[in-house]
Write a structure and sequence with these properties.
Blueprint: H1 6-10, H2 15-33, H3 38-58, H4 69-80, H5 86-96, H6 100-113, H7 116-128, H8 135-142, H9 147-159, H10 165-177, H11 181-194, H12 199-212, H13 220-232, H14 237-259, H15 275-285, H16 293-331
Helix pairs in contact: 2-3, 3-5, 4-7, 5-6, 6-7, 7-8, 8-9, 9-10, 10-11, 10-12, 11-12, 12-13, 12-14, 13-14
Length: 332
């Protein structure tokens, strides 16, 4: 069951127009009910009840020229989907009078029946009538399509103490996209300090600024602290930041090791050398006129071996001569 056609909704904007249309539809239904059969009469009665309820809701709208097409559209969709109830009607009426909890209940119900634009219009209406709890939420809805409008309502939310860490995070994002990094860092820091919903996201964003040096200096230690705190709160995006900072820290440590000058006669430090490397370094760094102690010892051993070889050679030669003489004597 629907109350209005799409064409009727397109031409409906103000409270005055809506009230006139409802009255006309009621007149038509009353005329039809006089000539209807029993089943049709019951349906007509239900429609008349809905029109009566809508008029009661419209009466809560103060500004006669206010564009309340979103309200009628919501009511029409709720009726069509069978989502209208006495509690819903009560909440809608109270919300239009500026009652915070009723507005929250209404917004919650809109998740099932309203498109993005209709829901945004409800948020805007609640902001316009002074329900401060919606300032931050409405600003978030404006973030992508109208950043300047978002900034205006973020500022209002902050002034009333109703801004969340999410609000500060997205407020800072707008400044970061405009390369206004000092303002961006300020909002991200406030988001971290706020400790409300979205603190983990503010931590990631501020950590990225420290990592890239957008705060005025690179501070990988601070970035790591923020990433780790955010990850501990369940933010998976922070894990990428942790990996990025670890990679940069390792690269910096390796660069520092390679650029460290040798001290005295010591060779530059090598990570995890094996025993053969140690022996090689020791041998190549030993003094003694450019020769190591091992080389001196090896040289001494070589000289001794040469002397022993000479002695053996002489002895063998003498023995050979003696044997030759004895052989010649016997022959002769």
């Amino acid at each position: 069951m629907i109350l209005f056609t799409n064409e009727e909704l397109q031409n409906l904007h103000t409270k005055k127009q809506a009230m006139a249309l409802v009255s006309r539809k009621e007149t038509e239904l009353n005329r039809m009910s006089e000539n209807s059969i029993e089943g049709e009469t019951e349906q007509t009665k239900q429609q008349l009840d809905m029109f009566c309820s809508l008029k009661e809701v419209l009466e809560k709208v103060v500004d006669e020229e206010e564009d309340i097409s979103f309200l009628v559209k919501t009511f029409n969709t709720a009726v069509d989907k069978g989502k209208i109830s006495s509690a819903f009607l009560e909440d809608m009426s109270a919300a239009l009078c500026g009652i915070d909890i009723a507005a929250r209940n209404t917004i919650h119900r809109l998740d099932d029946i309203a498109d993005y634009e209709t829901k945004r219009r409800w948020y805007k209406y609640f902001c316009d009538i002074g329900i401060t709890a919606f300032y931050d939420a409405y600003a978030l809805l404006c973030f992508s399509e109208n950043p300047d409008e978002a900034i205006r309502w973020f500022a209002k939310a902050e002034a009333t103490g109703q801004i969340t860490s999410f609000g500060y995070a997205y407020w800072g994002k707008i400044y970061a996209e405009r390369k206004m990094y000092a303002k961006a860092a300020e909002k991200f820091q406030k988001g971290v300090d706020s400790g409300t919903d979205g603190t983990d996201e503010a931590m990631v964003l501020l950590g990225a600024m420290y990592e890239e040096g957008l705060t005025g200096r690179v501070d990988l230690t601070k970035a790591m602290e923020l990433y780790q705190a955010s990850y501990a709160m369940g933010n998976q995006m922070a894990l990428e930041g942790i990996r990025s900072v670890n990679k940069k820290l390792n690269a910096a440590n390796n660069q520092a090791s390679r650029s460290m000058p040798p001290q005295g006669n010591q060779q530059p430090h090598t990570q995890n050398p094996n025993s053969a490397d140690v022996r090689q370094l020791a041998a190549s760094s030993a003094p003694q006129g450019g020769r190591s102690q091992d080389n001196i010892q090896n040289s001494t051993n070589t000289d001794s071996e040469s002397e022993n070889t000479t002695r053996v050679t002489v002895i063998l030669a003498v023995a050979g001569v003696i044997i030759l003489l004895l052989f010649l004597t016997n022959v002769l």
